[in-house]
Amino acid sequence: MAASNAAGGSGGRGSGGPWRNWAGNVTTRPARTVTPSSTEELATAVRTAVDDGLTVKAVGTGHSFTSAAATDGLLVRPDRLTGVRTIDRTAGTVTVAAGTPLVHLNRTLAAHGLSLTNMGDIMEQTVSGATSTGTHGTGRDSASLAAQITALELVTADGSVLRCSAKENPDVFDAARLGLGALGVVSELTFAVEPEFLLTAREEPMSFDEVTGRFDELVAENEHFEFYWFPHTGSCNTKRNNRSQGPAAPPGRVSGWIEDELLSNGVFQVACSVGRAVPAAVPGIAKVSSRALSARTYTDIPYKVFTSPRRVRFLEMEYALPRTAAAEALRELKTLVERCRFKVSFPVEVRTAPADDLPLSTASGRDTVYLAVHMYRGTPHQAYFAAVERIMTAYAGRPHWGKLHTRDAEYLAGVYPRFDAFTAVRDRLDPERRFGNGYLRRVLGS
Q1: Is the peptide bond before 417 cis (omega within 30 degrees of 0)?
Q2: Are 13 and 33 in contact (CB under 8 A)?
Q3: In angstroms, rounded to a whole number, what is the distance separating the alpha carbons of residues 340 and 444?
Q4: Which of left, alpha, beta for 308 (phi over 0: left; psi -120 to 50: alpha)?
Q5: Which residues are CB-neighbours of 193 under 8 A, at least 6 positions away?
Q6: How does DSSP assign 75-109, residue by residue?
Q7: Do 40 and 159 meet the contact criterion of CB atoms below 8 Å apart?
């Protein structure tokens, strides 16, 4: 990922170089770039930018596929606003600077015998970037990263700093846990944590018909269930993660490297490259890929089970549907791939989440299934994604805020029961839309 080399202090006025996201499909050219190292420097930078008539956006590591962080004004880089600030074992919390990478947070917690309850499947994002766009894993009872926030610090449009929690500025806290960068710049987050535990992962192949037929059972019986369906085949790979008394039994160094690096990244990269060059080869490659990963069971600490390396670059669309629609929507998606002759080299990822109470959470108010579709970078994706989106919206689907979609505020207001509650907080905190951009105008309105 290309990053800006312009690194100022709290109010550096130099021209910012272009910034590009991880997938390479979004480039933004800010007028100014800053890399504050403290909340005070961040507040000064925001105040100065607003006085100069600039809009302000903060960026993480660029793992969103949308232009949620794009700006031609002030771009706030996370590089120096990092680190674990406090660990409170009595309260069961950890407080971190907003630019802290998840990998650093997870490793620090592990060193203290602590863990998040649930997490997504990669660790490259910053804590603020991940929570602000609704990053989630899979869970029967445990929800997204944003739902695990117990307090936060927000720099608002006038440069003031708001401390927010369920007791302090509770309406702002309610909205800002998953705020899309629309309410201000998050400078600090406090997460609930618990004593470190072990998870046993059971991965095994299963047919499409069996996994869709048993979906409700598999979700109910496992703390964390997910699966991948390989388009052009009737094959899936399932993963069940459940708490374990141990002992730890991580994958062997060689076998783990073969599964997670050679097959999931190295060989898969080659397969995707061949499929891009020769689309007719994709179905055959998919059949081979679906048989490449074998059954395995291992036990380890949470972040080593939940997360895995993702080195093959792609574009992604993900929709959240009512969980009851999972099997029917998946069957429609399979029929679509078969009838429309799309050549899809990436598996479709299926995860779940319990209902939560965040206004803009994709699981707000309803038990949820997530269906994510991907296309290898450089492969035409628009027709496939558009066709998938028509299926998803027929089920009142909610698009992941950081992944490609075409929905607008009118549609989103109809599928989020608390949409107006969020926009009311936005109107109060940022009436002049200093934290706005084209993406937010589309999804939240002007």
Answers
A1: no
A2: no
A3: 33
A4: beta
A5: 87, 92, 93, 94, 109, 114, 115, 116, 117
A6: EE--TTS-SEEEEETTTTEEEEETT-BHHHHHHHH
A7: no
Q: What are phi and psi of 59, to 5 degrees?
A: -125, 150
Nearest alpha carbon to residue 384 among 311, 283, 284, 316: 316
pLDDT digits (tens, 9 = 90+) for 293-331: 678 999 999 999 999 877 788 999 999 999 999 999 999
Reading the block at residue 267, the tokens are 């060989």
- Reading the block at residue 206, the tokens are 């299963």
Which phi and psi angles does 135 have, rounded to 5°?
Answer: -60, 140
Q: By three-state DSSP, how is residue 362 classified? A: coil
**Residue 201 parent element (H or E):** strand 198-207
- Sequence letter at residue 275: G
Residue 248 tokens read as: 């730890």
Q: Among 442, 439, 416, 435, which residue's Cα sits nearest to residue 361?
A: 416
Neighbouring C-beta atoms of residue 85, cutoff 10 Å: 12
Residues 6 or more apart whose Cβ sits within 8 Å of residue 110: 196, 301, 303
How open is the CA angle 14-20-26, to the nearest 5 degrees? Answer: 120
Query: Could you give the CA distance from residue 193 to residue 200 in angstroms, rounded to a whole number?
Result: 19
Structure tokens at 122: 């990669």
Query: By the 8 A CB rule, do 93 and 150 touch?
Result: yes
CA separation for the pair 345, 279 (Å, rounded):
9
Chain centroid to CA 289? 25
Q: Which tokens is 268 given?
A: 């898969």
Residues 337-348 as b/e (b if ≥16 CB within 10 A, e otherwise) read beeeebbbbbbb
Task: Answer yes or no: are the C-beta atoms of 248 and 301 closer than 8 Å.
Answer: yes
Q: How many angstroms separate the CA atoms of 332 and 289, rounded?
A: 22
Cβ atoms 197, 142 nearer than 8 A: no
C-alpha closest to that of 308 among 368, 362, 268, 335: 268
Look at strands 32-34 and 74-76 and give their pairing. parallel
pLDDT tens, 210-254?
A: 999 999 999 999 999 999 999 999 999 999 999 999 999 998 765
413-433 per-residue burial string, b: 16 or more CB within 10 A, e: under 16: bebbebbeebbebbeebbeeb
Q: Residue 2: its pLDDT value, please? A: 31
Give me the amino acid identity at 435: F
Q: For residues 44 and 11, what is the distance between their CA atoms, to the nearest angstrom?
A: 7
Pair of tokens at residue 372: 């994510």
Q: What is the pTM of this model?
A: 0.92
